[in-house]
Specification:
3 helices; 190 residues; single chain; alpha+beta; Cyclic Phosphodiesterase, Chain: A; 4-stranded antiparallel beta sheet; 9 strands; globular
């Protein structure tokens, strides 16, 4: 079973993120309309912030992971985390994007505390993250073998988006022909 740990915005926040995504598409179409077809856009229902991608796990490992996350949820002294819009960016960069993102700021740093705690706890069970955590929500992925340059959209979108989360989730990811489908396996209150 393919799994990851995430922060999931509420429905209203996902709707606001979708509005930003629509504005991004409009901005890209003014640069080069054909670029829109080179991006697989994330659906509103799938907007989330990945804290840790676990990957394939068996039932025994899943039970251990659930136990670890349950302890973290109870012991970590964080009640909620706030996020604000920082901008639109890309991994690795806007000049040659692979992933278009909604870049977020967490001023009090609580999300980094949570991320570090999860990383340390899962490392003890043999799970090591291959990426440094960066607060963001994926808006779209550039299709393989396609190259586009989107540096011209830097700083062209603004938003007053801000939201809070007070839980993190163990998620299941099923790859289907229509794309990935995510479902919450367990939610851990902070």
């Amino acid at each position: 079973m393919r799994t990851f740990i995430s922060l999931n915005p509420d429905i209203d926040t996902k709707r606001k993120i979708s509005e930003i995504q629509i504005r991004l598409k409009e901005k890209i179409s003014t640069v080069n309309k054909s670029f829109l077809d080179l991006v697989k856009w994330e659906s509103e229902i799938n907007f989330h912030m990945t804290l840790f991608f676990i990957g394939e796990v068996n039932e025994d490992d899943l039970s251990k992971i659930r136990s670890v996350l349950n302890i973290i949820g109870k012991e970590l002294q964080i009640s909620e985390m706030g996020f604000t819009f920082k901008g639109i960016d890309a991994f690795p960069k806007l000049k040659f994007p692979r992933v278009l993102i909604l870049d977020l700021t967490n001023k009090d740093g609580k999300v980094f505390e949570l991320s570090d705690t999860i990383n340390s706890a899962l490392k003890e069970h043999g799970y090591i993250s291959d990426k440094k955590f960066h607060p963001h929500i994926t808006l779209g992925r550039v299709k393989r073998d396609r190259k586009i340059n989107l540096t011209c959209i830097r700083d062209t979108l603004s938003s007053d988006l801000s939201f809070k989360v007070n839980s993190f989730c163990l998620m299941k990811s099923e790859l289907k022909s229509s794309g990935a489908e995510y479902s919450v396996m367990e939610e851990y209150e902070l």
